[in-house]
Amino acid sequence: MEDNNNGTNSPAGTPATSSAGFKADFLRRVRENKRSRWIRFSAVMLVFLLWVIWMGNPWLLLGAILLFDIYITGYIPFTWWKRSRSKEVRGIMSWVDAIVYALVLVYFVFAFIGQNYQIPSSSLEKTLLTGDYLFVDKTVYGPRVPMTPVYFPLVHNELPFGLGKSYLDSPSVEYHRLKGRRGVEAGDIVVFNFPAGDTVMTKVTNPDYYTLKRWKGEAALLANPEEFGQKIWRPVDRRENYVKRCVGLPGQRIKIVDGIIHIDGEPFEIVPENVQFNYFYQVNGAPLTEEEFERMGIPVADRGLADLDQVTPEQLGMLGYKVNEDGSVPPIYVSPMTAAMVEEAEKNPRIGKIERQEAAPETIYALFPEAISADWTRADYGGADGIWIPKKGVALKMNRAAWDIYGRTIRVYENNPTAEFRDGQFYLDGKPQDYYTFRMDYYFMMGDNRDNSLDSRYWGFVPEDHIVGTPLRVLISFDRDKGLFNGKIRWDRILRDANPDK
User: Fold this and answer.
1) C-alpha to C-alpha distance for 124 and 446, rounded to whole angstroms
2) pTM of the full structure
3) Tell me, what DSSP letter sits at residue 138?
4) Which of 84, 154, 319, 389 is the most buried (most CB within 10 A)?
5) What is the pLDDT of residue 3?
6) What is the 3-state secondary structure (H, E, C) of 88-121?
7) Which residues contact 294 (CB under 8 A, 6 or more apart)?
């Protein structure tokens, strides 16, 4: 903290004997400041005023009074400890002062400028790799004013060592986004809060609560707190952070045909260079070695063996796979690959037949919306007409099909807990309505690792109030399959563009 300007200011708590005495004391404090202090105050005040203008809230100008006292008048004795006779008190408080000052600075930088995030999964490989640490710019779309403003700035939603939540539920602030440089565009890689993360079991966050509830039933979850923890609700900005690519914008209609995304009936024009699909590939001879897998660019987590329990050698032979004379089958792997990786594999004499894995209807994770997606697959999604992505200000005719798709969006994301559909009619606040007008924009997000990404195909739309920012650069990257002195740090990824396809 800034030291108040001199040691002659009246002690805290000394009452002013008269208005004239207070005025004289005030003017004395102002006059006794050095020029350098006025320069520092002016610089801080300029930044503060720009921030207030950006926030668009004139009530924040009251903070100027506090800044003036901190830098100029010194009535509030923030730096009382500097006049202490105890060396220990001065030493300890100097550290406390520095830490508090740093935390306040970090709070504002993380909230309004940007911060680092780690890629924990492979849903965007090979564009972004597991172990990448990203700097996420919050100013591009406009920073979101913290909705839970009282929180510890160095952690997201849980304090370390099981100390509990890192934030206070109250006070809370209504969603408001400051002016940014542009909106979300098709093809952007976006960091956002997980929409289905509003309710969580504290000991199991993956799979999410709603998937666990579908698998086991809510009663089983609540009856086993030692396994699943407690059921809690999290505010929007404290939900888990996800990173995906935006493939559908508000008001567009999305459909996937044989893995190809279609927007408003036309193929999606932005196809990432490193988009991946799952491929079966058979090996000639002995199983692939570690070195061979590395040359192919396939990490340990992606080196899966195909499940052949339900397929006979005769059937495999009819499909074009090699079967040995003794009836044994050389190893058949399944891994996500880019088009370039497939091309190289086809040239490799060690690789026999290679073909793309055909997507089957989901049996473990239900596709969104579960009520009408039974016959869809991750590669053929959206039915005959596709799914319309909600847009702010657009009124949608509400029938049973519309409710099946947008019911959760209306109830949870748009905060209409009383909304329901019964007896063939949509009700809002107990009143029958034929249309619903959306209050926010929504987006459809997908991973580049198309067959191994739990994304909007599984949990639906991303509301605008969940958007955090867009990654700018890879700060550093660690390969989880390597040792510290054996290539763990991916030096070639440091400061690499985090969104190379835009």
Assistant:
1) 9
2) 0.88
3) S
4) 389
5) 55
6) HHHHHHHHHHHHHHHHHHHHHHHHHCEEEEECCC
7) none
